[in-house]
């Protein structure tokens, strides 16, 4: 009896099928008056306005003039909802003409598109850590790997190449979004921050022992264009990847 109960509990504890499998099943049933796409669109608008932490089934339902329970009949949890939101914004990536035959140009284009998407929807930096199985995520994966096929790499090497460029991009965007948040929190833009910290930096340089900080202050470009910096640093990443491909060959 105890064994039967344990087996039942184990079955009960199994997570439901992924949201994409459940939506496929829904698609074979009768038409529904409340579409999950409309729910997702409303949730994205809320996240863009107030941040993803503000998104709840109750708030999304209120925005749509529906009851929260009506949403739960379509989407089982907030986890499902954020999965739908993330995949929906991936659909905004412009993949036209990719692959073009130039892996370097294509990967640079994908990285630039990802950076643009993160600035349009800053909350997505919280997601995408696990592989998504939504239609737009699948499209991005297939397109990205097609860009680096034919270079003599196995599938792990292809994934390494693509992921390295995209993870650099994610890190760059995290820094950019962090600066936006710092400005919001302190009321100082970066130029204002430099003026605020200037007297202490001058003191440090007078004390000596910081030759590279001195060079940064005296020689580095002041307030460089972030687009130019991104392209330059991405180019360095791609140079390294190209050299790695050559060594493997």
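-> sequence recovered:
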């Amino acid at each position: 009896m105890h064994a039967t109960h344990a087996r039942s509990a184990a079955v009960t504890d199994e997570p439901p099928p992924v949201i994409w499998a459940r939506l496929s099943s829904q698609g074979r049933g009768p038409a529904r008056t409340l579409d999950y796409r409309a729910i997702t669109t409303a949730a994205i608008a809320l996240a863009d306005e107030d941040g993803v932490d503000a998104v709840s089934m109750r708030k999304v339902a209120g925005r749509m003039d529906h009851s929260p329970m009506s949403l739960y009949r379509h989407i089982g949890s907030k986890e499902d909802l954020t999965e739908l939101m993330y995949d929906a914004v991936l659909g905004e990536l412009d993949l036209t003409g990719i692959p073009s035959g130039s892996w370097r140009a294509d990967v640079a284009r994908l990285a630039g598109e990802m950076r643009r998407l993160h600035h349009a929807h800053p909350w997505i930096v919280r997601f995408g850590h696990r592989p998504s199985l939504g239609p737009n995520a699948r499209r991005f994966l297939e397109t990205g790997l097609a860009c680096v096929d034919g270079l003599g790499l196995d599938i792990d090497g292809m994934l390494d190449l693509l992921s390295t460029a995209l993870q650099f991009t994610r890190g760059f965007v995290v820094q950019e979004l962090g600066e936006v948040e710092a400005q919001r929190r302190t009321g100082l833009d970066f130029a204002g921050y430099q003026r605020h910290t200037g007297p202490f930096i001058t003191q440090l340089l007078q004390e000596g022992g910081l030759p590279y900080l001195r060079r940064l202050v005296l020689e580095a470009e002041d307030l460089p264009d972030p687009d130019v910096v991104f392209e330059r640093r991405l180019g360095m990443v791609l140079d390294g990847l190209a050299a790695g491909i050559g060594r493997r060959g």
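Residues 155-186 form the longest helix (32 residues).
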